[in-house]
Hints:
3 helices, mainly alpha
Amino acid sequence: MHDLMDARRAVGQARRSGDESAEHAAHAAVDIAKRKLGERGPVWWTDGAPDLNRHMARTTPYAAWFATINAS
């Protein structure tokens, strides 16, 4: 998490300074950190459940549940 937060801060810093190459490097560092945390990359679990990452909740088997929490 520390590496991810450092990389995210670097993205902001690069944007504020207008340094496109530093921003590109910072985004790459964010990607590396997220992959190490298991947030990106190949599915690491083997329970047979489908990979629903990057899907909107309303287009998944959780749609009915999602509708109940948005109703208020």
